[in-house]
Give the backbone structure.
Amino acid sequence: EGGYMAFEIIGNSMDNGSIDSIPNGAIVLGKMMDMTHKPFSEISNALLNKPVIVVFKSRIICKQLTGYNADNQIMEFDSLNDSPEFQGFEMPFSEVLEVYEVVKKQL
């Protein structure tokens, strides 16, 4: 397992008013997942239905990992906020640079 990094959350996609919400302006502490020595399915299973920070080549997101397709190496993400502008989406694992498990949040 890797180190830790703090991220400031921008936006309301992870805010549904519940205790699990990560609202706009929150600071989250993420624990880096070891992607070099663990297979895709092991990483995905460990993080399934948990909030994660994912660093892609084009952006950084905070979402909930809701599923994955091991055969196609696809990760499925969703927001806690069920408003229509925050729809779920899929991303190929090949575009992932880093994955952090959210281990703490400060509102």
Remarks:
- The chain has a mean pLDDT of 92.
